[in-house]
Each structure stands twice: as structure tokens, then as C-alpha cells.
Model the fold of this input.
Amino acid sequence: MNNQSNQQPLSDQQIAEQETVKKEEIEQQAIEQRREHLKNESVRIIDIANNEPHSALKCIHQLSVAGGATEGTYVAIEQRIVTDQDAAGAYHLSLLAQNTSDLPIDVRQLIELVVAKGDNQQRLALLKNLPLPPVDMIKEQVLASDDGDAIGQMNAYLQINPEGYGSQHLLTSSQADQILSMSHDDNVNNNINNNTNDD
Done:
């Protein structure tokens, strides 16, 4: 008997269903490949954080390029920052944490490190970028620095925003997700790129 004579041609609906299944399989493969890539990148970044002193900026840059990482990666970078007392690394990781609410890191500890050991540009950037910055701590450090320019900038900012609710509070919703550079000349990117090149 000829089996072909018993087979009915596929209806448009059946063809569409088969195409949908194929598309879902391809998407699932892409997700698995991305997951595997992030896992491999995470292992590599954790290795750098665990073994290279002052590598936090380099790790954060590579994490950003990878587009994400495992929770263990963030923990390893945080430990590197705390070990090195790295204010620049703490600044960047604390801002990164503002966009990702469930990171397994102690953001308060990072912010306190920036306020205590960072420079005034970093302190002022935290004041403007954090939703609820530690205004009194920042004020105390900036005033103690006797930096007239920074004190002027801080006072001008607090005059229009005495509660210190951060820039998000003052901006429209379309701008709320933007993070200001910690300096006018993009020292952030220069620092990250310089550290990345120091292999």
C-alpha cells in the first residue's frame, strides 16, 4: 500500500503551528547559549576579582560588556572592592545596584566607602544619583574637605532639593533611568578603560 495516499496535506493552521514550534525551539537554544556564555564570563570575572588586586573597575567593565553575570560575580566584585577599599569601584557598583534591586551585595556599605574614601565628585554624584542618599554623611565629608567649588555645588543642589531625594526625584520619568557621569570629563570611562588595558 502507498502511505502517501493516506496522508492528508497539512492545513494552514498545522503549518503555522509547526513554524511556531520551530521558532520556540530556536529561541530556547538562543537562551541556553546566552546562559552558557554568561556562566563562562562569570567564572572568568570571578577569577579576576579573586586574584587581581584593584581589579574592580576592570571586572565591572567586563560585566557590563557581557550584559550580566551570576550572583556570585557581584559578590566577588564587592569583596574585591572592600578588600582594596576601592572608592571608585564602590561608586560604580552602588550605582549599578540602583538599576537591579535584587543584587546580593551590601549597597549601604559601598555607599559609606565612597563617602568616606572617595573624592568630592563621587560624593556629589551619589547625592544626585541615589534615590535616598545619606545627605548628612555627604555634607559632613564635603564640608570637611574645604573644597570651595564642591561645597558651592552641594549647597546649590541642596537649595533646590533640601531633602536630597536624588536627581530621579527632580527629573521627568523619561529621564529617571539616566545616571549622571561622576565628572564632567568622563573620568569614569577613562578609569575603566585604563584599568581594562592594564592586563
